[in-house]
Specification:
- The structure is a single chain.
- This protein has 234 residues and is of the alpha+beta class.
- Helices cover 48% and strands 7% of the residues.
- It is built from ten helices and four strands, in the order βαβαββαααααααα.
- Helix 1 (29-40) packs parallel to helix 3 (82-92) and helix 7 packs across helix 10.
């Protein structure tokens, strides 16, 4: 199936028996959460990419919110929302569990995920031109700098918490190189080392995009129809 994003006037691709489908958008960090879990757990699936500013008419019938990700089964049932989809996948496919079995550790990881909203808000403000949000964003990242007591937030190997926060961490390099975010080694030695380790994780390698591709996409984002397919080869 083509990875090209679908918009108005396109046909809904038929569901394939026995195969999960993820409705996604290549540049959406929320959808990337679920793609990371699918990759980390080696779960077979197909992806249908959606133009979020100009959605195909049929998509609202599948997910009334119109957002991604949305996981759909071959019988038509569907589950929306990135955390819910990702948790479902980890529970429904118990091999290579990403969430810790210890209830306390799981709760600690859940707090880190929940607290990431304090990063996401200034992240988008800074991304779209509010320079005053830069220090707020950096201040919110200090919490995760302190939490990096091991190689990963989840311990000695990537866990569910790492995959839930990584999409925005990945985009920090774009903000640093193209938007002059002052993410430096003096203030964030652990976080910057963590970014380099995460880049070597197989699931991350499957979903990561370059700074230049992000730059091309976000330059087009202010228009009525962003270039959703920039950097896509199939």
């Amino acid at each position: 199936m083509s990875l090209k994003h679908l918009g108005p006037g396109t046909q809904l691709p038929p569901l394939q028996p026995g195969k999960l489908r993820l409705y996604s958008m290549v540049f959406c960090p929320f959808a990337q959460r679920s793609r990371l879990v699918l990759a980390a757990k080696n779960i077979p699936y197909e992806v249908v990419n959606i133009k979020l500013k100009v959605k195909p008419e049929w998509y609202l019938g599948i997910n009334p919110s119109g957002m991604v990700p949305c996981l759909q089964f071959d019988d038509g049932r569907a589950i929306p929302e990135s955390l819910i989809v990702s948790e479902y996948l980890d529970n429904a496919y118990p091999e290579n569990k990403l969430k810790p079995s210890d209830p306390y550790i799981n709760a600690v990881h859940s707090v880190m995920i929940d607290s990431f909203g304090k990063v996401i808000t200034p992240f988008y403000k800074f991304l779209f031109g509010d320079q005053s949000a830069g220090e707020h964003l950096l201040k919110s990242l200090e919490y995760y700098e302190k939490k990096l007591e091991n190689n990963y937030l989840g311990g000695d190997k990537p866990a569910f918490v790492d995959y839930m926060v990584w999409p925005w961490i990945e985009r920090l390099e774009f903000l640093k190189q193209k938007k002059n975010l002052d993410l430096n080694e003096t203030r964030f030695p652990k976080l910057l080392a963590y970014i380099e380790r995460m880049k070597q994780v197989p699931a991350v390698k499957e979903t990561i995009l370059s700074v230049e591709v992000y730059d091309e996409f976000f330059k087009s984002y202010s228009g009525d129809e962003p270039d959703y397919d920039c950097g896509i080869n199939a």
